[in-house]
Amino acid sequence: MNVKEFRKHAHEFADWMADYLEKVDAYPVKSNVLPGDIYNSLPGKPPQTGESMNEIMKDFEQIIMPGITHWQSPNFFAYFPANSSYPSVLAEMLTATIGAQCMIWETSPAAAELEEKVTNWLKDMIGLPTFFDGVIQDTASTSTLAALLTAREKITRYRVNKAGLRQENRLRVYCSTETHSSIEKAVKIAGLGKENLIKVATDDKLRINPEKLGLAVMDDLNKGYHPMCVVATLGTTGTTAVDPLKEVGQICKAHNLWLHVDAALAGTALLLPEFRWMIDGIEQVDSFVFNPHKWMFTNFDCSVYFVKEKETLLKTFEILPEYLKTKSRGKVNDYRDWGVPLGRRFRGLKLWFVIRSFGVKGLQEKIRLHVSLAQWLKKNIEKEKFFELMAPVTLNTVCFRFNPGNIIKSQELNNLNEKLLNILNKSGKLYLTHTKINGDFVIRMVVSQTYVTKKHVENAWERIKKSAQDII
């Protein structure tokens, strides 16, 4: 393909993208293809000669698109979002075109300095103390791994990086039973062992119980273990419960434990002053992560990781082969020393575009709308005789179930709600997911897609009620 052909197809692609985003709610939200459908529709061997872009796009439309679940649909109420927005997409086009590898300052000075600037903007926007330094990682999973590795090196005085993890270290990590699975994954990758992740019971609001956390730490100390880190969550995946940061921080301070905060979704809500109560006690936190690619309308992947002791982070990850030595080292941020990968994408550009295009007030308006829509749904569920809320509605996630009142056995009620969820998702008109709370099957509806309106939520709620009545 030459530049003339590229220009022609780029214009066509831009039109396709605009049409798609304009009409995305007309697609079935969740793909209903069967396992193997896409794979078996593709040829067994690659083409020996190049094919035209028209042929490739034809197959894209006919083979690939039927297998896409449309995360950008305003009828997407599943999981937590992976939101995009028009300015973010435009920035991603520029990022892909430039194709920069932003491992160190010298490989793209603008990328490094823009990343430093936008993370400082975000720190101010969500109310974090000035002592934090920020870096953009790919996901919260990577950010949490960075936190655990840094905590591990700090408590062992960097011996593990030098000599390896020894059995006698017996390092322990603590989190609640509602904490995201990435914590357990990070514990395993860090060589700490899954058995050394202590999952602490929650209170009646599904938050970590500080009293039980304190007892778990003391019990481990008495048994000869070495408590290392606590992971607190602002906005758990199941129900968006918010752990009591101040009380957890006091326990960490008393025992000299690293305190990491996973605010992957809920961190965006801190744009609103009325949600700053969630970070009461933030001064005791060592590291903090939130994902603009979830609820701040920035294309996946974009996870912002803040750390109190930058030097400890750098000492954990830095390695300096001859080919990476530069004269600018020490004068600038070489972000390849701030996490796991050497190679890095130019993620700061899309954040810059989003923040400048929306403005802080525009972002706040979107978040407030989503919170208000979740509250609208909550009130309507409370009015319905055969539906019940299953968890507090703190942010944008509503957990509920259908309960017609004539079913005694809990497993039968679970089966009924699972059937309802499957019917709703197969309709193609909306997409929801589930969780389990104390063994109960619960339907989750997350109201936070970039362009969702009240009408989308109203339509979803009407369909939920009608589908529930149809299966009685």
Radius of gyration: 24 Å
Distance from N terminus to C terminus (CA atoms, Å) equals 59 Å
Shape: globular
**What percent of residues are in strands?**
5-15%
Helix content, binned percent: 40-55%
Largest sheet: 7 strands, mixed
Task: Report on the architecture of this protein.
It is a single chain. The chain has 472 residues and is of the alpha/beta class. The chain is built from 15 helices and eleven strands. Strands 1-7-6-5-4-2-3 form a seven-stranded mixed sheet, sandwiched between helices. A four-stranded antiparallel sheet has the order 8-9-11-10. A hairpin with a 2-residue loop joins strand 10 and strand 11. The chain is globular.
Topology:
Elements (H helix, E strand, L loop, with lengths): L2 H21 L13 H5 L11 H12 L21 H13 L10 H17 L7 E5 L2 H16 L3 H5 L7 E6 L4 H9 L7 E4 L9 H13 L3 E8 L11 H11 L2 E5 L24 E4 L1 H4 L7 E5 L2 H8 L30 H36 L3 E3 L7 E6 L7 H17 L6 E5 L2 E7 L7 H17 L2
Parallel strand pairs: 2-3, 2-4, 4-5, 5-6
Antiparallel strand pairs: 1-7, 6-7, 8-9, 9-11, 10-11
